[in-house]
UniProtKB/TrEMBL annotation:
MF term (GO), any: DNA-directed DNA polymerase activity
Coiled-coil portions: none
Residue span(s) of domain DNA polymerase III delta N-terminal: 21-132
Xref: InterPro entries: DNA_pol3_delta_N, DNA_polIII_delta, P-loop_NTPase
Organism: marine sediment metagenome
Lineage, top ranks: unclassified sequences, metagenomes, ecological metagenomes
The keyword Magnesium is assigned to this record: no
Protein's name according to its UniProt entry: DNA polymerase III delta N-terminal domain-containing protein
């Protein structure tokens, strides 16, 4: 039985990359693991500071136009520029519209990873649209059997 994480990680390892990823759910470890795989596959070692951009909607001073500029900037030394947008569930009004506009015009030189806060439900129309335009996974908390299997698989790696 393959888990969601194994499926998305396998896609990344096989270089079946998407322009947009939407990751949500309570299992932050799995989300971080997917991010690590993307970094490993996309970024050249030592070029994180040039080709990796991180934004957090919850931080004071967040500007959606800065995100757009980063997305449109070609990578300096890596296969693609990797942009991480955290706390996407905190976007408001016109910023939501600007993000959706960005998603409707993908470019091949960047990958945008959008992450929703673990405690937030992602069932509104805004998230439905994002899910339809991206590779989307909701990483739920592992239950007893799944957790035991995951631990065994992890140790065997």
């Amino acid at each position: 039985m393959r888990t969601e994480r194994e499926t998305i990680v396998q896609e990344i390892r096989e270089r079946r990359l998407f322009n947009f990823y939407f990751l949500s759910g309570e299992n932050e470890y799995k989300i971080k693991e997917v991010l690590q795989e993307l970094k490993k596959e996309v970024l050249n070692p030592g070029f994180d500071s040039f080709d990796l951009d991180k934004f957090d909607v919850a931080e004071k001073g967040f500007d959606i136009d800065d995100l757009k500029r980063a997305f449109l900037t070609p990578p300096m030394a890596s296969r693609k520029r990797l942009i991480v947008l955290d706390s996407i569930d905190k976007l408001m009004g016109t910023d939501k519209k600007k993000l959706l506009s960005l998603l409707e015009s993908p470019i091949e030189t960047s990958i945008l990873v959008m992450i929703a806060s673990p405690s937030k439900k992602t069932k509104e129309a805004f998230f439905d649209k994002i899910k339809s335009l991206s590779r989307s996974e909701n990483f739920r908390k592992l239950k007893k059997y799944s957790l035991e299997k995951w631990i065994i698989d992890y140790v065997e790696e």
